[in-house]
Design goal:
Layout: E1 2-3, E2 6-8, E3 20-21, H1 26-32, H2 38-44, H3 50-57, H4 61-70, H5 82-91, H6 101-105, H7 112-126, H8 135-138
Antiparallel strand pairs: 1-2, 2-3
Helix pairs in contact: 1-2, 3-4
């Protein structure tokens, strides 16, 4: 519902009533960041990551993404897909992530070092080390 330029929500997803949703005055934010219009501000920060642009403009990074989309701008740098990241990781045995549970689980590496790291990690999660009881634990 819109009342006098302020967007109101009757309730949030949990059903709890809430107040006005803040709306950005795009041009005012742009002027505060030293730009004439919001379009100029978004174009001037287009080569930055969304988080960096958000800090400069004083808005959230999802807002930067929406504004960039409205202007037809793509993300600053395209991120390689998961298969490409895994292939690059597997091709570089000197990568410091080899020998880590992350290398095994998230990057799909099955080298001996990553497999051992995953085994060690899994054992600590499923069979935690039990410490010997102390006098305090025994009530003495």
């Amino acid at each position: 519902m819109v009342t006098s330029g302020v967007t109101l929500r009757a309730s949030n997803p949990g059903g709890i009533p809430c107040g006005p949703v803040p709306r950005h005055d795009r041009d005012a934010l742009a002027r505060a960041a030293g730009h004439e219009t919001w379009q100029d501000a978004v174009r001037a920060t287009a080569d930055l990551a969304q988080q960096e642009a958000a800090k400069i403009l004083g808005i959230s990074h999802p807002t930067v993404r929406v504004w960039r989309k409205e202007l037809g701008l793509d993300v600053a740098t395209a991120r390689p897909d998961a298969a490409q990241r895994r292939a690059e990781f597997a091709a570089d045995p000197a990568d410091p992530r080899h020998g880590t549970a992350n290398g095994y689980r998230n990057l799909g590496c099955r080298c001996e070092r990553c497999t051992q790291a995953w085994t060690d990690y899994s054992r600590t999660r499923t069979h935690p080390v039990i410490k010997e009881p102390t006098r305090r634990d025994q009530g003495s």
